[in-house]
UniProtKB/TrEMBL annotation, chain A:
Cellular component, GO, one term: plasma membrane
Span of domain ABC transmembrane type-1: 68-252
Protein name: ABC transporter permease
Protein topology in the membrane: Multi-pass membrane protein
Protein source organism: Companilactobacillus kimchiensis
GO biological process, one term: alkanesulfonate transmembrane transport
TrEMBL record, chain B:
The keyword ATP-binding is annotated on this UniProt entry: yes
Keywords, in A-Z order: ATP-binding, Nucleotide-binding, Transport
Name of the protein: ABC-type nitrate sulfonate bicarbonate transport system, ATPase component
InterPro entries membership: AAA+_ATPase, ABC_SmlMolc_Importer, ABC_transporter-like_ATP-bd, ABC_transporter-like_CS, P-loop_NTPase
Length: 270, 241
């Protein structure tokens, strides 16, 4: 007699590929494979684009010599400090203007005017004022990252549901409680959008700043390699920037899923 | 003010930008009484409730609460649940409380509203009726003496609405709460309240006392009388108690 098979038994026997985990890597893997094959068969000249293997070998060589870790760490330092300063100022301004109508009237118009100046256009001015030392590059990153954080913090705070504020008032919350229990958590999704956007601006600004006025950093490495027509190192620097950008995005996403876990729950999860 | 009055409203007026929302409203509400405010939209029901809750101030007149610490002894439940979406059900209950035994009290109230298994859920995991039960439990957290209900059942389906009506009536009776319910549903008012106040043309134009332990026939009669008063029609002759 044939043993009856329940639906759950059938499901248990099926093999599931972790499609969600594989899909994001599919296109980069295909591009690298095509790139490598094209280089190996000579369809793509190394003077146009060196092969992925050549770039990898260059990366290993520069890591062993200590040049890549040194330049990478200085770029990370500039990016992090610039983001902390710019993001901090942006958050404070967004908070003040979001909470107070008087401050909003006083500051917002001027900030919006300043925001519309492309911050990279300030490079000549920054070099004249601060030279080509660390403070110049950190200042540029800070200016670039300040506005996305400001706009989103300001918008997040000023658009908190007034019904929740009224509910807090009816529970006699103090100003501090009102901020930490209602306003800040309600504005947090928007603030995190600003930080994520600022991370993108941070790398773009740093690449330009290090290419134009630096004696160290990944941007300087790429610029220096260009002078010696060292294509492997130029491409390596671009790949390093792409990896750093991706890591920043992953860090921002983990923050979002940790701080906003309530958004990911729903009736279907019960 | 009557000695037994929990809430006394004397000649209250409320004007918003030349628009009169309340005109010369006077009302005494006794301790433990269940009042329903009914009437057409724009009649001033919610405005009166907000003045009692202290969320707004009258343009003139006096609203007096017969308690020393009137604000913490008074809680409002709104039509929208107003739960904080980033807090669990249990945290939503305890967030406004200063009591040390908050969590234990919150658990008791969740039991009362039959939601103990949902303590760790977030509001977006609950149905509309469950959210309103959490909102009711939160309103009861500080052991209020006055419960203000601003159309809390308006968005619920008929069955959930009936269950919530029973739950609210049961809690208010057991805890001897002075309750004011704002509702568009006259039958709901006739079913739940001891006294119905009709708000019309920005003032309390008519009152109807409801009999104790009323049956469905009596609820129908009261509903008809109040409706005809609101619509200025003659009451239906067909209903009998």
């Amino acid at each position: 007699m044939q043993k009856p098979v329940t639906i759950s038994d059938t499901r248990r026997k099926q093999f599931h590929l972790p499609v969600d985990k594989i899909l994001p890597f599919l296109i980069p893997i295909i591009v690298i494979l095509i790139w490598q094959v094209s280089s190996t068969f000579g369809w793509l000249s190394s003077s146009v684009l060196p092969s992925p293997m050549a770039v990898l070998q260059d990366g290993i060589k520069l890591t062993q010599s200590g040049e890549l870790p040194k330049n990478l760490s200085i770029s990370l330092y500039r990016a992090t400090v610039g983001l902390l300063i710019g993001g901090g100022i942006g958050f404070i301004l967004g908070f003040i203007n979001g909470m107070s109508k008087t401050f909003r009237l006083l500051f917002d118009s001027s900030i919006q005017m300043f925001r519309n100046i492309p911050h990279l256009a300030l490079i000549p001015l920054i070099i004249i004022w601060l030279g080509i030392n660390e403070s110049a590059k950190i200042s540029l990153v800070a200016i670039g990252t300040m506005f996305p954080v400001y706009i989103n913090t300001f918008h997040g705070i000023s658009s908190v549901d007034p019904d929740l504020i009224e509910m807090g008032k009816s529970y006699e919350l103090s100003k501090g409680q009102m901020f930490f229990k209602i306003i800040f958590p309600a504005a947090l999704p928007q603030i995190l959008v600003g930080i994520r956007y600022a991370l993108g601006v941070m790398w773009t600004t740093l690449i330009v700043a290090e290419t134009i006025s630096a004696s160290s950093g990944i941007g300087y490495m790429a610029n220096n390699a260009e002078d010696f027509v060292d294509m492997e190192t130029v491409v390596l620097c671009i790949v390093v920037y792409a990896i750093l950008g991706k890591i920043s995005d992953l860090v921002a996403k983990s923050f979002e899923s940790f701080l906003l876990d309530w958004q990911n729950t729903g009736r279907s999860n019960i | 003010m009557n000695n037994n009055s929990m809430i006394s409203i004397k000649n209250v007026n409320k004007i918003y930008n030349n628009l009169t929302a309340l005109h010369d409203v006077s009302l005494d509400i006794q301790q433990g009484e269940f009042i329903a405010l009914v009437g057409m939209s724009g009649g001033g029901k919610s405005t009166l409730l907000r003045l009692i809750a202290g969320l707004e101030q009258p343009t003139s007149g006096l609203v007096t609460i017969n308690e020393t610490d009137s604000k913490s002894l008074m809680r409002v439940m709104f039509q929208e649940d107003r739960l904080l979406p980033w807090m669990s059900v249990l945290d939503n209950l305890s967030f406004g409380s200063k009591d040390k035994n908050t969590k234990a009290h919150a658990q008791e109230l969740l039991e009362l509203v039959e939601l103990t298994t949902y303590a760790d859920h977030f509001p977006n995991q609950l149905s509309g009726g469950q959210k309103q039960r959490v909102a009711l439990a939160r309103a009861l957290m500080t052991n209020p003496k006055i419960l203000l209900l601003d159309e809390p059942l308006g968005a619920l389906d008929a069955l959930t609405r009936r269950k919530m009506q029973d739950l609210i009536m049961d809690i208010c009776q057991k805890q001897n709460l002075t309750t004011i319910l704002v509702t568009h549903d006259v039958e709901e008012a006739a079913r739940m309240a001891d006294r119905i106040i009709v708000m019309k043309d920005s003032t309390n134009s008519y009152e109807e006392s409801c009999p104790k332990n009323r049956n469905s026939g009596q609820i129908g009669i009261v509903t008809d009388r109040v409706l005809s008063e609101i619509l200025e029609e003659k009451p239906s002759q067909q209903r009998t108690a």
